[in-house]
């Protein structure tokens, strides 16, 4: 249990709770859930510019990272097509992947096919079911994709001024504005209470909030004097109690709860809001193809990691379909902005390609 690990090393309850957020982020789990310690490890492994466990902002926003990858690929001869939905994987008579068929009927032929879509979309929607082993299909169907995350993007006309560290008169960003700000994390018991509410189908009444202000470091993201605020919040169940839908009323009611919490820490925050975009788990699934809204394509639990991700005997990026590879977050080692799954899958695919 993560709680036991933190108790061994720290005394401060707010510090333990703040560290615990990285053990439950994106996971329908609490600090008291067995295996939660691994999720913390997953988020601090690796390094950034030589600093172990560090994270950073991408200049120009996260889209700039995708553009950088696209430019690097294009420079090496790759052709990139967007807004071209794939209908299904094209198989030859020998059962090998031979490309993909787009929704407009266009066939794109290829000796190899790599999918960074979720295992559910890749194998349950895009691959002919009769070509897959039944036990493999059953395993993919049983993957735990529960997600507690509701993402709220906010535009504000001034920096939040926190009671604990008020803004200066010139309104310039202070050091804490340039970091990840954790709210409702005074104690790990608050995280467990928020988790418990969600397990009963109710959005947390005092949700865990991770607040980032990327424009404090990258002014080009917002007009002068204004800022963009990213709120990563949980816990919100994918399905509300009683089968109630995540309609506009439910979305706004939860967002109002989040904003009320922020207001208690930074009076005036609500008055500074000039726009907000609310993405609940069903929205994340519908817009981005994340199963259940899960940012990792599947829970980062010990039964769904390492040799079991996405299924036993298929953790090496190859699939039951020769020539079809999984390279997204649903493959080992899982989600996160690190590219490990894609890099590993590419190496496996290249090795196979050379043997064709």
Automatic annotation (TrEMBL):
It is found in: Mitochondrion matrix. Keywords: FAD, Flavoprotein. It comes from Alca torda (Razorbill). Pfam families: Amino_oxidase. InterPro entries: Amino_oxidase (IPR002937), FAD/NAD-bd_sf (IPR036188). This is Pyridine nucleotide-disulfide oxidoreductase domain-containing protein 2. Residues 41-164 form the Amine oxidase domain. It comes from the Eukaryota. The keyword Transport does not apply. The keyword Flavoprotein applies. Belongs to the carotenoid/retinoid oxidoreductase family. Transmembrane segments: none annotated. Its main location: mitochondrion. GO terms for cellular component: mitochondrial matrix. GO terms for molecular function: oxidoreductase activity. Probable oxidoreductase that may play a role as regulator of mitochondrial function. Interacts with COX5B; this interaction may contribute to localize PYROXD2 to the inner face of the inner mitochondrial membrane.
